[in-house]
Write a structure and sequence with these properties.
It is a single chain. The protein has 2 domains: 54 residues, no CATH class; 150 residues, no CATH class. 74% of the residues lie in helices and 0% in strands. It contains 12 helices and no strands.
């Protein structure tokens, strides 16, 4: 019971920090330290663990990926690629509603560190205006990007589940597919339908979809490079 209460204290403080709009990085760092203290970990091993983490190859690679993705997003915005991509996607049936669900979903097909940094600017371009609060944009981006996570075979969670259970990845994917099927309409009901219909969609699909693919090639290239070289 005491161990459970310690975790409750940590999670409550995390929630309070988020409510106070403290930077999430500071909150998680402090939560890690607090957890170690509550569970009686010694000071020097904690410091050594943080040092090893910061200097580890995986951490440095993740940090570099996030920087490069941010750089890519900024370049795409500056040269007008994001504007043209959003314009093409909004010409699909459903206009902005379709764009808000489709663009993050395309990014989500390849799980990669910092994927949210690629899809967030696209959502920002689609959902303009004061009506759409940052929290709403965040949940639309997150929901749309992760809706296939339950059954998409390249997600690490499915690979890990296959390793632990001995079941083929394809079997686990099929077993969890109903969750994706359920999540899609739930996202439409609770989030996507709240997006204004801008009447940009002309009832077309192939032409604007092809135009959208042509304009998203830098992002597709980044995803393919990640898949090929396992960056």
């Amino acid at each position: 019971m005491a161990e459970f209460l310690k975790l409750v204290v940590v999670f409550v403080l995390i929630i309070i920090g988020i409510r106070k709009k403290i930077f999430v990085g500071y909150i998680l760092f402090a939560a890690g330290l607090l957890t170690a203290v509550l569970y009686g970990a010694e000071f020097h091993p904690i410091i050594n663990s943080y040092r090893d983490l910061v200097l580890s190859a995986s951490f440095l690679k993740l940090y570099a990926i996030i920087i490069l993705i941010t750089f890519l997003g900024r370049i795409l915005k500056e040269i007008g690629y994001l504007d043209r991509l959003v314009a093409a996607s909004e010409n699909l049936v459903g206009g902005a509603r379709t764009a808000a669900g489709l663009l993050p979903g395309m990014i989500g097909l390849m799980p990669m560190p910092g994927g949210a940094l690629l899809s967030a600017p696209l959502i920002g371009q689609v959902l303009k205006g004061e009506k759409y609060r940052p929290e709403f944009k965040t949940v639309v981006n997150y929901w749309s990007r992760h809706v296939v996570e339950f059954c998409w075979p390249v997600y690490p969670g499915l690979v890990l589940s296959a390793a632990l259970t001995g079941l083929p990845v394809g079997t686990i994917s099929l077993l969890q597919m109903p969750m994706t099927v359920i999540m899609i309409p739930l996202g439409i009901i609770f989030f996507i339908r709240k997006i204004d219909v801008d009447n940009k969609g002309k009832g077309l699909f192939l032409e604007p979809f092809g135009s959208m693919i042509l304009r998203i090639w830098p992002i597709i290239l980044a995803i393919l490079l990640y898949a090929i070289f396992d960056l």
